[in-house]
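In this notebook, the sequence line spells out the residues, with the fold written below as integer tokens. This is how one looks.
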Amino acid sequence: MKKSISPIALIFSCGSLIACTSALKDTFKEEAIATVTQNQMKTALLVASEPQNKQVSSLQSETQEKQEPVGKNLDNNKKTKKGANQQPTEGTVKEIVSGDLMCYVTLVDNKGIQHNVGASFEICDEKKFLNKKVRVTYKVESVNDCQSSEPCGKTRKQSIITKMEVVNESSKKDSYILSNGKWKITISNSNSWNGVNGTGNVSYQGCDINGKCLSLKGGKIVCRRGLCLTAWKNANYTYILEQPITENGNADSTLIVRKDKTEILKVTGLK
């Protein structure tokens, strides 16, 4: 015989089911809130850790940057040693300064290139070399490698000037003639140039094939990039004599005449 469920039991059962459902809903809500809170905390921690990661990355980069120059300095030292034989042996002394570790000389070579080279302290005592064309001798010496003139026990080997002598200007030609069969150019007082760019008082006389001549004075010399240029002004005309810098000095010269900025004459093959 089947038993029937009483209405009262059914009511209690439903009540319990509703309570359980409500309790489950509350549990789910609490778990969801806890999950959201945990996610927010993780996000906050991730955001907070980003600057730290950037700082660590930055520190690593800085460490690498600080480590790199060690190798670069070695390469630079090798280049310096290779270029030691290219130090100028002749030039015009622009400046002589006595430093803590050595004497420092500024030389302008025959190509107009400026060099800052070390020298012995004895060179600094010789002010007679200033603005003079000189010939120098180098020697590898032990020099102080301290932060100041105070001794610290550290030294290094460096090629420095140990001897300097004034070049005898009288041995150079003060006057010479250039010609290509059609033009004849006479240059005089060339020794008025002391080796400093933009100086000199060079004289010029140019004659064409018809014997028509022009004389100019006050020529200034500039030497750079393998060329020496002597320029004269005559009203709005400029006369420029180009002479390549070579070991034997036998390269052909070129005369260029400009009116304002326009080239109106170019004479080549002058020897």
